[in-house]
Write a structure and sequence with these properties.
The protein is α/β, with parallel strands linked by helices. The protein has a single domain, classed as Rossmann fold. The strands form three sheets. It has an eight-stranded mixed beta sheet with strand order 4-3-2-7-10-11-1-12, sandwiched between helices. A two-stranded antiparallel sheet has the order 5-6. It has a two-stranded antiparallel sheet with strand order 8-9.
C-alpha cells in the first residue's frame, strides 16, 4: 500500500540504509547543524484559553512532583491493571528517565513498568540480558516490572495501514487494561526524535514487531532487518500504523501520555554511547492525545531560546521526524493542533 509523499532528505541510499548495521548507522548519523534549521527564538508559548486543539499541559518543573502534576492535569482516570511504558535504556547510556523521577507516579498508579526486548544486539536483546539492565538501571527496585514479550508475542491487525497489515507486540499486552506512555523526548538517529508515538509503536513491539515496523512490513526477521530498510517516510508511516493498531486494540480512552523533555541529546536511549545534550532541559508535557503531545514537544525545541537547539533541530529535520506526527494525524489517532496549558 502506498504511503504519504516521500521526504527527499532520506532515501534508500542515505546513511543507515542497505548494507549497514545499526551500529554503523548510529556512527555515521551526524549532528551537524544547518543554519536553515533555526526556528523562532521565543520561549515555550502558552495558548489562550480559546485556542482550538487538544490540550497539552506543561510544566518547567522536572521533578517527581512536577511529573505527577502533569499527569493529573490530563484529568483521565485510568482503570484496571496499569502498565507504565518506559524505555529502560541501553547499558552504557545514561539519559533514560531516572527511577527516582518516575517512582512516585508509578507508585501512585499502582502501576507495572512494562518493556519489550530489542531487535538488535546489546544489553536488552534477550529477556535475560534485559532483566539485568532493568536491575542495573534501578527500575526493579522501584516497582513491579514486566517484559511483555518474555513469553511470546501477539499480532494486532492494522486496519487500512499505510504499509503494515499487522503490529506484533509483546504477548503480555492483553494483560493490561490501561497504559501510561511515559517517554523521554529526545533525538533519534533513525526517527529524528522519539516521544510518545515511538514509545507506543516500536517500544511496545517484540523484536519481530520492531523489525516489521523498521522495514515497513518487508520482514519480521531481526536478522535481516538492516538489509531491508525502506524509504525513510515509509518507516515513519509504519510507526503510525503500529500506534493505530495499539489504540484500536485497547481504546484511546485507556491511555495517558507524558513526555519528559530533558537530557536533550540528538541520540535515543537505545544508543549505548549517546551524544551529550547541547541544549538545556525544557520541561514536562502531558496529554491524552499523543499526536498533539509530540507536536508540542517538537515545536518547543524550535521555540527554545537556547542556541544549542540547532543540533537537535538538525537531527529532527534531516530525518523528517515530524512525518510520524503527520501520519498519525492522518490515521485519526489524534490532532496536531494543540493548546499549551501552563501548570506553573
Amino acid at each position: 500500500m502506498n504511503g504519504l509523499d516521500q521526504h527527499p532528505h532520506m532515501t534508500d541510499a542515505s546513511p543507515g540504509q542497505h548494507g549497514m548495521s545499526r551500529r554503523d548507522f548510529l556512527r555515521t548519523a551526524t549532528g551537524a547543524a544547518a543554519a536553515s534549521a533555526l526556528g523562532s527564538t521565543a520561549a515555550v508559548q502558552i495558548a489562550a484559553a480559546d485556542t482550538p486543539g487538544a490540550a497539552v499541559y506543561f510544566t518547567k518543573d522536572i521533578s517527581p512532583e512536577g511529573l505527577i502534576k502533569a499527569y493529573e492535569a490530563c484529568g483521565r482516570k485510568l482503570t484496571g491493571r496499569i502498565g507504565v511504558k518506559i524505555s529502560t535504556g541501553e547499558p552504557g547510556g545514561h539519559h533514560f528517565l531516572a527511577p527516582s523521577l518516575i517512582a512516585p507516579l508509578v507508585s501512585r498508579l499502582d502501576g507495572t513498568i512494562v518493556e519489550c526486548c530489542t531487535a538488535y544486539g546489546g544489553g536488552r536483546a534477550t529477556p535475560a540480558s534485559h532483566w539485568r539492565t532493568i536491575e542495573q538501571h534501578g527500575f526493579k527496585a522501584i516497582a513491579p516490572c514486566d517484559l511483555m514479550d518474555e513469553d511470546g508475542e501477539l499480532s494486532l491487525p492494522v486496519e487500512k495501514g499505510f504499509h503494515l497489515r499487522e503490529n506484533i507486540v509483546g504477548g503480555h499486552f492483553g494483560a493490561y487494561d490501561s497504559f501510561v506512555i511515559l517517554s523521554h523526548f529526545k533525538g533519534h538517529a533513525m526517527g529524528g526524535f522519539g516521544g510518545a508515538l515511538k514509545n507506543i509503536s516500536i517500544g511496545m513491539a517484540s523484536p519481530r514487531g520492531k523489525a516489521n515496523i523498521h522495514t515497513a512490513g518487508r520482514t519480521s526477521d531481526p536478522g535481516t532487518l538492516w538489509s531491508n530498510l525502506p524509504e525513510q517516510d515509509h518507516f515513519l508511516e509504519s510507526m503510525a500504523d503500529a500506534v493505530k493498531a495499539v489504540y484500536a486494540a485497547k481504546g484511546a480512552e485507556h491511555f495517558v501520555c507524558v513526555n519528559v523533555a530533558n537530557n536533550l541529546s540528538v541520540d535515543c536511549d537505545c544508543d549505548s554511547h549517546p551524544a551529550p545534550p547541547r541544549m538545556a532541559d525544557i520541561g514536562i508535557f502531558a496529554s491524552t492525545d499523543p499526536v498533539a503531545l509530540d507536536q508540542a514537544c517538537y515545536d518547543a525545541v524550535f521555540r527554545s531560546e537556547d542556541s544549542g537547539k540547532i543540533y537537535l533541530i538538525e537531527r529532527m529535520t534531516s530525518r523528517h521526524g515530524i512525518h510520524t506526527v503527520e501520519a498519525a494525524a492522518r490515521h485519526g489517532i489524534g490532532v496536531a493542533a494543540y493548546k499549551l496549558v501552563s501548570l506553573d
